[in-house]
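Researcher: Predict the fold of Coenzyme Q-binding protein COQ10 START domain-containing protein.
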Amino acid sequence: MQRYEKKIKIESSPEKIYNIVLDDFNTPKWNPTVSAVIETENNKIQLDTDLGGFTITNTETDENKSVIWRMEESDLESIEYILTPKTKATEVTICIEFDNKKLLKLLKKTANLCLTGLKNYIEFIEKGGDPELYNKWDLLVTP
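Model: Structure tokens for Coenzyme Q-binding protein COQ10 START domain-containing protein follow.
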């Protein structure tokens, strides 16, 4: 099994970031790689992403510290968000475990987009922005 990690600092509390990451159905709002989240018949969560569809079979949490999504029947084994408090910010680490070595280059880009989207969304809210008016595509484009 392969593992890839990427880190970013976000000027927000671990609690706020944790609650946003834990809210599966809000993920398409901030994550540019996720187009939809669907609850399946057996109460599992289906993520429709740029990499295809993934079913989350289990979510493990350590309140305000980490969220792990476990997948089934997928090249991805898990996606984990680790939250580490820093001075005036939180370091967010995304860890992706996967089987197919050929996915590494694509997963690096995906992890970067995911963390950038999360950072932009949270900082938009921290500055008083209305989450309902947030457009994940606006802040990914550089002038």
